[in-house]
Amino acid sequence: MRATLSSLSVNKMASYCLTVTRVRLALGTGARRFHVSAAFNAKAKVSMSRFEPDTSINYEKMHENIKIVRSRLSRPLTLSEKIVYGHLDDPARQEIERGRTYLRLRPDRVAMQDATAQMAMLQFISSGLPRVAVPSTIHCDHLIEAQIGGTEDLQRAKEVNEEVYNFLATAGAKYGVGFWKPGSGIIHQIILENYAYPGVMLIGTDSHTPNGGGLGAICIGVGGADAVDVMAGIPWELKCPKVIGVKLTGTLSGWTSPKDVILKVAGILTVKGGTGAIVEYHGPGVDSISCTGMATICNMGAEIGATTSVFPYNHRMKTYMEKTGRGEIAAVADQFKDDLVPDNGCEYDQVVEINLSELKPHINGPFTPDLAHPVSEIGATAKKSGWPLEVKVGLIGSCTNSSYEDMGRAASLAKQALDKGLKCKAQFTVTPGSEQIRATIERDGYTKILSDVGGVVLANACGPCIGQWDRKDVKKGEKNTIVTSYNRNFTARNDANPATHAFVTSPEIVTAMAIAGTLDFNPETDYLTAANGEKFKLEPPTGDELPSRDFDPGQDTYQYPPAESSAVKVQVSPTSNRLQLLEPFDKWHGKDMEDMRVLIKVKGKCTTDHISAAGPWLKFRGHLDNISNNMLIGAVNIDNDAVNKVKNLLTGEFGGVPDVARHYKANGVNWVVVGDENYGEGSSREHAALEPRHLGGRAIIVKSFARIHETNLKKQGLLPLTFADPSDYDKIRPDDKISITGLKSFAPGKPLTAVIKHSDGSQVSISLNHTFNETQIDWFKAGSALNRMKELKE
């Protein structure tokens, strides 16, 4: 069978996969078991996915690397160490120290969502390479705006984004990248269903890539420039992560869901508590969580700044892989199970313990995902804080919570309400995570139940979770409350309204609150009133972990890259306002940076949403100059507590942040941004680094950085620097000039100096730290990592 598969053409392989799916639908799970047992033998090579028959999983290589590293370190290894070190480029000589050294790694594959894939593919085109070196995919999920309903919104997105979709499809075909068309589903759900498996290392251009940790994979969110490195076959650098262990005991039951685990962990560790670390779940409680539930927990680990999160391989993962047509992979994983679980006696840098039997339903927010409340207490807290109690909209789905199990448990509550003659008091939306989930829940009746209770089924896409929501029920500035099963709830993120109080919780709690219509409804204790006046309580939600029949794959939405692509043309119109070919950034001039202006001194939280907003700006993600018009328009200026209003120190007038930056650049004036703690938390979007570089920025000076953003800044030739003394933040005034000295002797571990010149003629010098290594310093000197790649090619 393997030889036959390897010889199939791309078109024949597509036909084969479709035929197998149809046979399985007709015959049920028995057909799959027969296929797996017939095709698999212990020494056969097993493909990484059904879409890539010429690839193979290499557990043997990972096993050998683990043996080498364990021998060198002479200690038990955590699971995350096994997978990460198992992908080292040079395990025999790599210096390994958690939290200090930089690892050179060889990830197995790359995944890109459409909003970030535009810039990633533009950079890959600039590299001059003919084809990607590792299996890679593009997923169209970010550009579909929620307006009316799934079918209508998808059709409108195809029309509005035709130019971008055509670019991504042809670029994928040209350079060997698989293309998932709009309507396929959210990138992380597609990865879980098709590409993630125990022990794989995958990097994705989205911060919630860690979702794949629910299948025992190390999946890490990165910027597009990192993706280009891996697609180019260059070893990828990652600071050796620390490992935070979360020990789970007890058993989930009743109203408590997997989402409550990460909501609790976020409350404990905060939005920066996981920075520089992998969160590794372990303990006897793990087995009470479904595979998709584990993915939910790993997905939202991005909100605590973690590099990624991971669970050990177990029977729940095996069952999920078998149900999604990957029994062959599960059978091989069984043989290497010792490499897919932590060693006995391994040590963690920090341990958090959670008893699942005692864990209560949680809801986090508003305005930050780490403000955790038990559902039983949120009503009183809201009243005390002045938060609106009426729930205007309940939204379930998203990449975090759109599994078959999630939808089933929500539907079980909706059915109870319908049986009592009730519908949702709040507006209610449902976002399926993938075409497979949409088709299966429709077949099994969940969609009808959720629609009958008042739900509007949206497209298989990100939608309101990332601000792609044409919301009409409230005016901008109107104070209101929404509850979602999403992962992130920063100010104005979902609907561009800074007065919207967004809370994140489980799909079950969202559904219950949407039915009740109020934030202070606790389904464990509170009663609803049926249509006949009878008081009743909702029974705890129930739902099958996986469908009893096979999944219905729905429509075929995958485009295979052709084996021969020389005739494929990738066109970018010079007059397009959506796409723009990239020009190289300028190299370092070899001198210190003198008399730079402070463009803005940011007050408080500054996420990548503040630096490069999503929502309506997503349409410009492939056009650097146009997208730069949103740079830092959401950041609060400490000088006047206003957003997008800074003083132009050349003219004395106030203007928008991007406008003032453009004026400085046009007049040859370099500038810096000054920021607070955890600067750049949130999305992996590298536009938050590209835009400052494009508009003349040279350095970002803050108290601390989020991991992905710091790396993105380095990749684009900027200087991400931190105050050696955080209180030095207070020494910088908005009208200062700043010089950064010591660049001629720029070296790893050696601080730089900032000379701050005040407008009154006085000046002060402060020390600035950095995390650059030798390779990254070469990026800075070359002007960007892409420039450096070209230098090495020449």
Quickly list its features:
794 residues, alpha/beta, Aconitase, domain 3, 3 domains, 32% helix, globular, disordered N terminus, lyase
Strand and helix layout:
Layout: H1 2-7, H2 10-27, H3 29-39, H4 59-73, H5 79-85, E1 102-105, E2 109-113, H6 114-127, E3 136-139, H7 150-160, H8 162-175, E4 178-180, H9 187-194, E5 201-204, E6 218-221, H10 224-231, E7 236-239, E8 242-249, H11 258-269, E9 277-282, H12 291-299, E10 308-310, H13 315-323, H14 327-335, E11 350-355, E12 362-364, E13 372-374, H15 375-385, E14 391-397, H16 404-419, E15 427-431, H17 435-443, H18 446-452, E16 455-457, E17 480-484, E18 500-504, H19 507-516, E19 528-529, E20 535-536, E21 558-559, E22 593-601, H20 608-611, H21 624-627, E23 636-637, E24 642-643, E25 646-647, E26 654-655, H22 657-666, E27 671-674, H23 687-694, E28 697-702, H24 707-715, E29 719-723, E30 737-741, E31 752-757, E32 763-769, H25 774-782, H26 785-793
Parallel strand pairs: 2-3, 2-5, 3-4, 5-6, 8-9, 8-11, 9-10, 14-15, 14-17, 15-16, 17-18, 22-27, 27-28, 28-29
Antiparallel strand pairs: 1-7, 4-21, 12-13, 19-20, 22-30, 23-24, 25-26, 29-32, 30-31, 31-32
Helix pairs in contact: 2-3, 6-8, 6-10, 11-12, 13-14, 16-18, 16-19, 23-24, 25-26
How would you describe what is shown here?
- Its main location: mitochondrion.
- This protein is an alpha/beta fold and 794 residues long.
- It folds into three domains: 60-355, Aconitase, domain 3; 362-520, Aconitase, domain 3, CATH 3.30.499; 593-792, Aconitase, domain 4, CATH 3.20.19.
- The chain is 32% helix and 17% strand.
- It contains 26 helices and 32 strands.
- It has a seven-stranded mixed barrel. Strands 6-5-2-3-4-21 form a six-stranded mixed β-sheet, sandwiched between helices.
- The radius of gyration is 26 Å and the shape is globular.
